[in-house]
Amino acid sequence: MSLDVFIALLVFSLVSSITPGPNNFMLLTSGVNFGFVRTIPHMLGIGVGFVSLLLGVGFGLGALLIALPQVSLALKILGGAYLLYLAWKIAMSRALTSGDESGGRPMTFIQAALFQWINPKAWVMAVTAMAIYTNPEFPFLSVLLVAFAFGLVNLPSVSVWAGFGVVLRGFLSNPVRLKWFNIMMGLALAATLWPMLR
Asked: Which InterPro entries does the record match to this protein (predicted)?
């Protein structure tokens, strides 16, 4: 992979990682409701889970989904149902928590990593990246480079969303504002299903 192609891959990785989607809406909400430090396992889980998904797609899973459309449909249904469940949980959340409170819990590292495997946006990103940026002459190395590029930009990208949530914490300490923020974030998360349903 030439330097200019790798730079283009980094730009693609950054833009697709930092734009709105299920992960970023959940991180924004987690930053508001739980603070930055308690959201770190969620952020790390997204990075590790997405890189593992990229590697899976790059090393043959994408071809399997094309060959078996029923598996792709099952993933869409499972992912959509789980996304709606998460949207409901976010919309019904009503209280900010600090590090020592047990009233609510942010998504764990494992939950966030596993979510990538049923996240519709993550699948679109992974399949698109592998289709555009891998080289058939050097398949193994190019798959690793795509995964590396996303791994490089993912944590800074998702940190922006969690950090923005922390900035909003003071403003949303008002229970009425927090209630409406969480309802709007739940609706925004549910709306991310629209591209998959079209």
From this structure: LeuE-type (IPR001123)
Report yes or no on whether pTM surpasses 0.85.
no
- Asked if the structure places residue 71 within a domain, the reply is yes
For residue 63, what are the domain limits? 3-9+22-27+40-91+106-197
CA–CA distance, 39 with 18 (Å, rounded to integer): 16
| CA dist., res. 182 & res. 169, Å (int) | 12
Q: Digits of tens for pLDDT over the chain (198 positions)? A: 788 888 999 999 999 899 888 899 999 999 998 999 999 999 999 999 999 999 999 988 767 767 777 877 777 787 778 878 888 887 887 767 655 554 578 999 999 999 999 888 888 889 888 888 888 888 889 999 999 999 999 999 999 999 999 999 888 888 888 888 888 888 887 887 776 665
Q: Which amino acid is at 137?
A: E
Cβ neighbours of 191 (radius 10 Å): 12
Please give the span between the terminal C-alpha atoms of the chain, in angstroms, as a whole number.
Answer: 34
Domains of the chain: total: 1
Q: Does residue 150 form part of some domain?
A: yes
147: nearest Cα among 118, 116, 192: 116
